[in-house]
Amino acid sequence: MRVFRLIPYRSNCLKLSIFLFFLILITASCSSSNVKDVIGSKNLGIGFGDTTVKGFNNDLGWKLSSKSEIKKYQKKNKIILFQLQKEKTRYGETAFFIQAPGDECYNKIQDCDRPNGEKQKRVEVGTDYGFQGNIWLSYSFLITDNYEYSDRSKAILQFHSTESFFGPMFMLQIDKERGLLWKHESSEGVIIVERGNDDCSPGAGGINDTNKRIYCEARHDWYQIIPAQDLKRNVWYDLVFNINFDKKDISKAFHKIWLNGKLVLKRNNQTLWIDQKNVRSSDNLANFKFGIYGSNLDRTYQSIYADEIHFGRTCEKLNIHNLGYNCTELESQSIKESIPIKTEDTKHFYLNKIFLN
Questions:
Q1: What per-residue confidence (pLDDT) applies to 211?
Q2: Within its chain, how far is the Cα of 97 from the centroid?
Q3: N or C: which end of the chain has fewer CB within 10 A?
Q4: Where are the domains of the chain?
Q5: CB neighbour list of residue 249: distance below 8 Å, 6 or more residues apart
Q6: 269 pLDDT exceeds 70?
């Protein structure tokens, strides 16, 4: 009788041992994978409770240009260009590692071979929807030791128009000579070039037969956020943006930037593009993009880490207390109106080039 009772006991132990073995195997397999390919993944691979990205509309999702081209490049070169990883973070368990090699084209032909001679590369994602009005956004980034500087600056963040006939309103750029720059392209609105122009954001398409842009930026302004000599590698920088994308009343439009808790830029001028003929007002909104974007003519390599990318209609929604900042303190700060370190009269350039042609 005792023997009879021991047989099922041993059988159950054996089953339990097998179950525990596979459970440990699966757990080890899952925990050993600290890298997730963001390209094509839902919600950028962010899981429940992860603070890397918050506040965005997950139902409408994120959009990546050149998805199939980047996938082919990654498979060919056994590399991941945009990944969610756990080794280096600003806060929480994960952050993005983004790299943009300069060895070959991994984007669509509209970027890789533009009609004006430009060759652009982009490894970036953007909201697949638009917004307007007063918004807040936080963004932390770190420049790696392998980041290669050149005479051509690279953007790591953009507020772009949802209508491709318009260019970006704002770009955050890393520049070899001037450091971290805030480029403002919508300050003076647009000029209309009826025959189209290949130089104002070529490759974006247009609404006429020539497939060229007819709405070009009238002016570009650059503001210096961090001088080149102070922009360090392997250092996390925390940025908070407060922008009012108001196209109905430009007098209410403004943009502000805090760096590591200190207000460093304040400007009241046009932010969102004004509606134009043949462009629906519902299409002329702002969207948010981040990653690495810029010229590939220099054939250089760039890589950064990005974390704590939060969107909200109030500062409190950004959860910047996790980083040691206080919204009441930030909003109480005031500085004089910021002055660009460089201004470019693009209206004169575009019109004169068209006239000469």
A1: 57
A2: 12
A3: N
A4: 34-356
A5: none
A6: yes
